[in-house]
Amino acid sequence: MNHGLRRRLPVALAAVIVLGFLGLFFAWPVAAIVGLGLRGEAGAVLVEPSTWRLVGFTLGQAAASTAVALLAGLPLAYVLARLAVPGRGLLRVAVTVPFVLPTIVVGMAFRALFGADAGVLAIVLANAFFNVAVVARTVSGLWSHLDRRMEDAARSLGASRLRAFTSVTLPALLPALGSAASVVFLFSATSFGVVLVLGGGELRTLETEIYLRTVQLLDLPGAAALSLLQLAAVVAALLVATVARRRRETALRLRAPSDTARRPQGAEWWVVGLAGLVLCGLGTPIVTLLLRSVSTRDGWGLAGYRALLGTGQNGTLEVTGLEAALNSVRTAVDATWMALLFGLLASFVLVAIRRRAVAESLDLALMLPLGVSAVTVGFGYLITLGSLPGDLRTSPLLVPFAQALVVTPLVIRMVLPVLRAIDERLRQAAATLGAGPWRVRREIDVPLAARTVLAAAGFGFVIALGEFGATGFLARPDAPTLPVAIARLLGRPGELNSQLAYAACTLLMIVTVLGVVLIERLRGRTDAVEEF
To answer: I need a labelling partner for 146 at 20 to 30 A (CA). Which of 29, 182, 303, 490 fits?
Structure first.
């Protein structure tokens, strides 16, 4: 076997595994559900005025959420990037926590804050709360590398602080701002748990409407048509994010982050104050949720936490709250090792591909599961996977596979930049000394990327732990995860059910916070979400 073939064979094998996973657990189910629906009268749905009102609300609330997230995230980005203030590590944790909180926990927190009749404002604020971290850490990742001397030169020529920012700094930050805005818009447009909890059945987005038509109305043609509209919006947002990320990766980086940070001076204390107000805003729903979890009709109490050992009022659940929590842990562990396997293989392939157009096309394809309706994918599983040997529809690994499909793109976004940053000459030197492709990866890449891989594992675990979209559709009644159990408790009357739901949300939130602290300790100063 010649050297070139020997070098290409592992890449080809890894690509086959990754594409096989993507095809089996994403492309095939989505194509099946869309194809099944399009056999009916799906086209009629696209011309209904109600459909375009639905599209208008989806895009409108996503745009409003994006604007709020940008305004709230910029002061935090400035503090993280430019100011040497005490507790910046704690600030990074505080900013990241909302992003990895389960969507149903965020929905419940804002429900506790606004009440059961929460409306559009609550949905917009909840989506912005969820995505402030994307703005803060994406923008700060670039801002921390911009040389202050460019702004100082503009000031010395007579420009005001605002003029220096708008004419020098802002243009340099536009790639990061564009990348962050497109990702926030994507996440807000496909938000499921937040809208389901806060919409009250009256306010619906494309995502929740697809769920309604598929699960309750069995309107596959209508759901398929809406899925196509949503897919078009997702692809457009991902293309914008890809272009913006490419510009950010090639942006001029003159200084190390440690050289650009300094103690706050003058008007910069106003920015610190704004960042503090944003942090208070981020903390308010969380504190409200904590207080609600210990609030009863008779005063303060721990009835909800004690109820975790039971099945809710009048046996609402088929398992206890504790068993649902253990189900969540088991499925999250399985989803994490699957996502790591496929995410690392995909990163290996993307680094090895020399043609940029091919690499970017594959990268875009791997990001698509983040934006396509989880309901569409889940229902597609039930249609397609029964034809395989062993009928995966009854397998306990079905839910972890669905969660891994969501987590894998996030693993790639964390690991890929680290692998690309490794000096290629190290790999070439190892190959010259006779090391094969797999040994090169084992001896060079693994030690340098190990901390990031461990952080990706923690990040994937907390995301899978709170995944609700696909899990809510696929989990069996006798084996629900904790987010699914919370949703079922919300749909049943009774004070004990409500208390149990809020206690379960608090439990999920505590585990998530601990996971974020571990991720930050592993990654150090590296940003967990800046490479979206």
So the answer is: 182
Q: Cα separation of 501 and 395, whole Å? A: 27
Q: Which two tokens stand for residue 67?
A: 């604007």
Tell me which H or E stretch contains 310: none
Nearest to 150 by CA among 159, 138, 140, 137: 159
* Cα torsion angle, 262, 268, 273, 275, sign: negative
Tens-digit pLDDT profile for residues 218-272: 777 777 778 777 777 777 777 776 676 665 555 444 444 545 556 666 677 788 8
Burial 116-139 (b: 16+ CB within 10 A, else e): eebeeebbbbbbbbbbbbbbbbbb
Structure tokens belonging to residue 503? 């206690």
- CA–CA gap between residue 466 and residue 483 (Å, rounded): 6
Q: Which residues, in sequence order, are CB contacts of 292 under 8 Å at separation 6+?
A: 112, 502
CB 318 within 8 A of CB 514: no
Judge contact between 383 and 198, C-beta under 8 A.
no
Distance of CA 308 to the CA centre of its chain: 28
**527: helix, strand or coil:** coil
> Which of the following CATH numbers is that of domain 66-198+234-293: 1.25.40.10, 3.30.1140.32, 3.40.50.1260, 1.10.3720.10?
1.10.3720.10
Residue with tokens 């207080």: 291
Say what the pTM is: 0.81
Domain covering 1-29+301-532, topology: MetI-like fold (1.10.3720)
Are 241 and 374 a contacting pair, CB within 8 Å? no
The single residue listed with the structure tokens 């899978």 is 464
Give residue 245's pLDDT: 61
R_g of the chain computed on alpha carbons: 24
Q: Which neighbouring-strand residues pair with 300?
A: 295
Where do the structural domains in the chain lie, given as residue ranges?
Answer: 1-29+301-532, 66-198+234-293
CA angle 404, 9, 441 (to 5 degrees): 65
446-458 pLDDT, tens digit per residue, is: 777 777 788 888 8
Reading the block at residue 346, the tokens are 């995909």
Q: Quick check: do 1-29+301-532 and 66-198+234-293 share a fold?
A: yes
Structure tokens at 392: 């995966």
